[in-house]
Amino acid sequence: MISALTIFALVTSTLLLTMGWSLFSGKKWDPSGRHCYITGGSTGMGLALAILLTKKGADVSIVARNKEQLEKALAQMEAARVTPNQVLRSYSFSLDTFDAAKKALEMACEPHGGETPEAVFLCAGKATPGFFVEETEESMKKGMDNTYWLAAWSAKAASQRMIRTRTHGKIVFVSSVLGYMSMLGYSTYSPGKHAIRGLAETLRQEFLMYSIDVHIYFPATIYSPGYEEENKTKPKLLLKLEESDEGVTPEQAALGLYKGLQRGDFHVTDTFITDVFRTTARGSTPFGGNILKDVLYGFVGSIALVFWRRDVDKQVVGHREAHEEYLTSTGVLPPPSK
Amino acid sequence: MFWRARWNPSGKHVYITGGSSGLGLELAKLLSARGAHISIVARDPERLKSALLDIQAVRLSDTQIVQGFSYSLLTAEESAKALDAAIAAFNNETPDAAFLCAGRSMPRFFVEHTEEELRDGMDYGYWVQAWSAWVLARRMVAQRRKGHITFVSSMLGLMTVPGYASYAPAKHALRGLADTLRCEFLLYGIDVHIFFPPTMFTRSYEEEGKTKPALTKRIEEADGGLTPDVAAAALFKGFIRGQTHITADIITDMFRASTRGSAPGHYWVLDSLLDGVAHIAAPIWSMLTDSRVKAHREEHSRYLEDAGLLDEQL
């Protein structure tokens, strides 16, 4: 009798752990009727998210720089419209200053009677990989602008407005697997993506005072127009190191993020690889919905990643001579004096 | 049995930014006492002068060069000038080791931070070291010289606490840079390290306290801290052991182990034990901190209203 009870208790608790606490948490987040504001919303994951949220009945505002791309994007959103009342808009702004971020947000609030968006998705950003010794002062500053400041200024504009208008909204950051770790070639990208993590973690805590939820998505490779641009100038060695990396489509990424929001996840990861990095880099971040999974992945990852890194390191070391020739050919290195 | 000869400071040229006070100064003294040539860079000329006297006082021999330069290091140009000034006495050869200790923080709630303060946070937390690293790396590679570059981040580069929205991002960013460069500099045989100290009781720490929110102070109450000389000794120890990520106290070490991802750890068994402890201790700390933040809501709301921060101009 007692052993049967014990077994029952063990099985139940294991099932509970594996199914996750989300069973007992509140309603899933429903975007229908809510105003969703998406930076970087005209291409890639931002656009896919805009279309997904439109299909769910949300009012969607997208912000980006290129007017042509914004028009095309808006047409796709219109085609996905599910009710005649949905407010679908696009705005052309460069969001790399606080002023611009505030202006863009104010404009987006106008069709909504001045009300603050309930969900802000900070998808704007891009990567320009290269070798550190070849970077310029400009490329380094732009790298931080295009990763961190694009996110931070809009986050400040949005959160200030939410606080002032007592809107209990969501702010969703987009970092990257390169916000959990880094490797060759990403000296103008990984710092900004790590910085986004640092900001999101701080804000998750501070915004408990304002009932604003914070989420942060960590994708790996997304097969977007941005990714194609990136690869045009990416160092060959890095292309080789990333050869076997699998990616997701922007639609898959948008869906992965959306599901994570529904689960109430703080850090959202939606592939095996990004799960492994999340669980081996957790630190003070709360556990995901499935604690047992996190513990297992973390344990396996702590072993597997050692071998992965050693393999990457070996390939880099093996590339020394070729790299020296390359730097000599571009003039960064003077020819060796013999 | 093989082991690498431990890095010996004697006769080496060490370049230390933020070297006129706090961690940088203690490190300079430590290395001077072990025979190194020391170049320190900082802004205030008066503090530089007194720091140089302290560093000279402990050197082993007066053949050791001890020099100081006043530069701001917030731009690439300043950082290049500082380095060039320092290496002039060494036949323009790059230093054997650089420790980038420059930096400071201004804790404040995100909603209260001005745009300028947020930019300053990244300037004084990230760029002040990134520019030096960039200038150093380009010179070292051009000269085909090996060496070491050491960043100084913070426990707040591995985790965070309310009140540090302008600082934690910068300190996290340094980690991203260090991990990138550790891998990339395998191409050149240049070693990269990054130090994550906890609270250090320095002049900067006292400055910080002036703007630090009461909530942040309450959360940090139970934390200890280290004097800069103890921190410097720990940094040196980790450095000569060849560690990439260096810590000086067990709490930060726990965060280091539990955030290491694919970065090189220390001993796997020890790291796994620390990580195991973090699995339990970190969520408890996190839940306690969260409830403290929530308990602060009303007080904070009144404060925002009184300070007029909820007005239209926001």
Largest sheet of chain A: 7 strands, parallel
Largest sheet of chain B: 7 strands, parallel
What would you say the CATH architecture of chain A is? Answer: 3-Layer(aba) Sandwich
- Average per-residue pLDDT of chain B, rounded, comes to 95
Q: What is the multimeric organization of the chains shown?
A: heterodimer
In CATH terms, what is the fold-level topology of chain A? Rossmann fold
Query: What pattern of helices and strands is seen along the backbone of chain B?
Result: EHEHEHEHEHEHHHEHHH
Low-confidence stretches of chain A: 18-24
Please name the two chains that share the biggest interface, counting residues whose Cβ lies under 8 Å from a Cβ on the partner chain: A-B, 74 and 76 residues
What is the number of beta strands of chain A? Answer: 7
- What's the order of the H and E elements of chain A? HEHEHEHEHEHEHHHEHHH
- Shape assignment of chain A: globular
Please report the number of helical segments of chain B. 11
Tally the structural domains of chain A.
1
Short description:
By secondary structure, chain A is α/β, with parallel strands linked by helices. Chain A has twelve helices and seven strands. In chain A, helix 2 (44-55) crosses helix 9.
Tell me the layout of helices and strands:
The complex is a heterodimer of chains A (338) and B (314).
Chain A: H1 2-19, E1 35-39, H2 44-55, E2 59-64, H3 67-79, E3 88-92, H4 98-109, E4 119-122, H5 137-164, E5 170-174, H6 190-206, E6 213-217, H7 225-233, H8 236-241, H9 250-263, E7 267-268, H10 272-280, H11 291-318, H12 320-330
Parallel strand pairs in A: 1-2, 1-4, 2-3, 4-5, 5-6, 6-7
Helix pairs in contact in A: 2-3, 2-9, 4-5, 5-6, 10-11
Chain B: E1 13-17, H1 22-32, E2 37-42, H2 45-57, E3 66-70, H3 76-87, E4 97-100, H4 115-142, E5 147-152, H5 168-184, E6 190-196, H6 203-209, H7 214-220, H8 228-240, E7 245-247, H9 250-258, H10 268-295, H11 297-306
Parallel strand pairs in B: 1-2, 1-4, 2-3, 4-5, 5-6, 6-7
Helix pairs in contact in B: 1-2, 1-8, 3-4, 4-5, 9-10
